[in-house]
Automatic annotation (TrEMBL):
<dbReference type="InterPro" id="IPR052016">
    <property type="entry name" value="Bact_Sigma-Reg"/>
</dbReference>
<feature type="domain" description="PPM-type phosphatase">
    <location>
        <begin position="169"/>
        <end position="384"/>
    </location>
</feature>
<keyword id="KW-0378">Hydrolase</keyword>
<protein>
    <submittedName>
        <fullName>PP2C family protein-serine/threonine phosphatase</fullName>
        <ecNumber>3.1.3.16</ecNumber>
    </submittedName>
</protein>
<dbReference type="InterPro" id="IPR001932">
    <property type="entry name" value="PPM-type_phosphatase-like_dom"/>
</dbReference>
<dbReference type="InterPro" id="IPR036457">
    <property type="entry name" value="PPM-type-like_dom_sf"/>
</dbReference>
<dbReference type="GO" id="GO:0004722">
    <property type="term" value="F:protein serine/threonine phosphatase activity"/>
</dbReference>
<dbReference type="Pfam" id="PF07228">
    <property type="entry name" value="SpoIIE"/>
</dbReference>
C-alpha cells in the first residue's frame, strides 16, 4: 500500500475529532514535519482559526495579511523560510470541489524540504478536506473553529442551511458571501449542479431575527423539495409559494430569484419573484439583467409563476445582490446599485469569483459610511466558462 492510500485509509477509519492527528503523524513520518497546524476560514472570511480541542487558545491569523491567507486566497501553496531556525513553513490550501475551507501549515527542516513534495502534500490536504465534511456530521470541532465570535440563533440556522461559500465545475465557478456574517437573518443562497444543469436561487425572507430565519428555511427547503421531485423552475416557485402561504396566510413572504442554467448551451431559465437583482459583466461592460417581476413567494394564494429566458456566453460574469446591497445608501443618499456597484464589478474583474463577494461587500461598507448596514447584504458571483464542444 503506497503512502497516499495509507493516509487516506487512516483518515477514513479515524474518529472524527482526530483527523488532524492523522495528518500530523503522516507529515512527521514522510516529510520530517516539526509542527502541523490546521486553520479554517471563519464565517466572515476575515481570519483563519486554528482547529484545536479548546477553541480560541491560538490566536487567529488574518486572511488578508498573512502567508496562510495568501495560500487561501490564491489557492496555491505558499512557502516561507525561517533563516534563524533553518526551517521552512509550507502553507497548503484545503479545498473541496471549489469550496475553500482553510489552510494546512507544516514546519519542515530546511534540508528536508523539496518543491517536488508539494503535490504529494496537496493530495493529503484534499483527502483531509473530504473527511472533514464527513466528520462534521458527528462532531462540532470543525464548526467551532469557523467562528471568531458567537453566532446569533438566526445566523446559526442560516449557515446550516447554506451549501458552502463556493463551488466549481468545468462549466462554471461561483462564490458567495453574507454580511453581517454572525447576525444574518433573512438572506440566503442555494445551488445544486447535476450532469446537465445548475440550479441557483437567491432569496430574502422578510422580517428580522429568528422570524426571518424560520421563514427563509421554510422557503428554501420547499424549493429543494420541489427540485428533487423533478418539478421545473416555475413549479419549484409554485410549490414554495404554496408552502409559505399555507404557513403564514399572506402575513409574510419571501423574495427570490430562481435560475436554471443549461450547462451545454448556456440557456438560462429565470423566475423573478421579488427583490434579488442580477448584473452581467460582458466584454468590460456592466449591464443589469431585468425580468418581468412576479409576486414574492407566499404573498397570495395560488400564484402562478412563469419562467423567462436569457443566454450566457463563455467569459460572462454574473453578480447577484440582495436589496441590502443595491439599496444601501451613501452619506449623501445615493443608492449603491445606481453607479457604485457597476464600478465595483468592473474593478474586481481580475479577481476569481470566490473573492469577488467579499471585495464588493468591503467596498459597500466603506460606501455606506460609519453607520452599520440596516439590512442583510448578500452577494453571489458566477463566472461562466461553458462546456467545450463534444464534452
Amino acid at each position: 500500500m503506497d503512502k497516499f492510500a495509507a493516509v487516506e485509509q487512516a483518515l477514513r477509519t479515524a474518529p472524527p475529532h482526530t483527523l488532524l492527528g492523522v495528518v500530523t503523524e503522516a507529515f512527521t513520518e514522510h516529510y520530517g514535519a516539526e509542527k502541523v497546524e490546521l486553520r479554517l476560514a471563519d464565517y466572515g472570511m476575515h481570519s483563519l482559526q486554528a482547529v484545536e480541542s479548546v477553541p480560541f487558545v491560538t490566536e487567529p491569523v488574518l486572511i488578508h495579511n498573512s502567508p496562510q491567507g495568501r495560500a487561501f486566497g490564491a489557492q496555491e501553496p505558499v512557502v516561507t523560510n525561517d533563516l534563524a531556525d533553518r526551517s521552512v513553513d509550507v502553507h497548503l490550501p484545503v479545498t473541496i470541489r471549489g469550496d475553500r475551507m482553510g489552510v494546512l501549515s507544516a514546519r519542515l527542516p530546511e534540508d528536508g524540504y523539496r518543491q517536488a513534495l508539494l503535490p504529494e502534500m496537496q493530495h493529503i490536504c484534499e483527502a483531509l478536506g473530504h473527511e472533514i465534511l464527513v466528520a462534521e456530521r458527528d462532531t462540532d470541532l470543525y464548526v467551532l473553529a469557523r467562528r471568531a465570535a458567537r453566532l446569533t440563533l438566526a445566523a446559526e440556522m442560516q449557515w446550516q442551511l447554506l451549501p458552502g461559500h463556493s463551488c466549481s465545475r468545468p462549466e462554471f465557478s461561483l462564490g458567495a458571501h453574507l454580511e453581517p456574517a454572525y447576525a444574518i437573518f433573512g438572506d440566503n443562497y442555494d445551488w445544486s449542479a447535476s450532469a446537465d444543469h445548475l440550479t441557483l436561487t437567491v432569496s430574502n425572507g422578510m422580517g428580522q431575527g429568528i422570524h426571518a430565519a424560520l421563514l427563509t428555511n421554510l422557503a428554501v427547503n420547499a424549493m429543494r423539495n420541489a427540485r428533487r421531485a423533478g418539478l421545473d423552475l416555475a413549479g419549484q416557485a409554485t410549490l414554495a409559494d404554496q408552502a409559505v402561504y399555507a404557513q403564514y396566510q399572506g402575513r409574510a413572504h419571501v423574495s427570490v430569484l430562481l435560475l436554471r442554467f443549461n450547462l451545454s448551451t448556456g440557456d438560462v431559465e429565470a423566475v423573478d419573484a421579488g427583490s434579488p437583482r442580477l448584473w452581467r459583466l460582458r466584454d468590460g461592460t456592466v449591464d443589469p439583467i431585468s425580468f418581468d417581476e412576479q409576486l414574492p413567494l407566499g404573498m397570495f394564494e395560488d400564484t402562478v409563476y412563469a419562467a423567462q429566458h436569457f443566454t450566457v456566453r463563455p467569459g460572462d460574469r454574473l453578480l447577484f445582490g440582495s436589496d441590502g446591497v443595491y439599496d444601501a445608501a451613501s452619506p449623501v443618499g445615493e443608492r449603491y446599485g445606481e453607479r457604485a456597484l457597476a464600478r465595483s464589478l468592473t474593478g474586481t474583474r481580475l479577481l476569481p469569483p470566490t473573492q469577488v463577494p467579499g471585495a464588493v461587500l468591503r467596498e459597500l461598507a466603506g460606501y455606506h459610511g460609519e453607520t452599520p448596514l440596516d439590512d442583510d447584504a448578500l452577494v453571489v458571483c458566477l463566472d461562466w466558462n461553458g462546456r467545450p464542444d463534444g464534452a
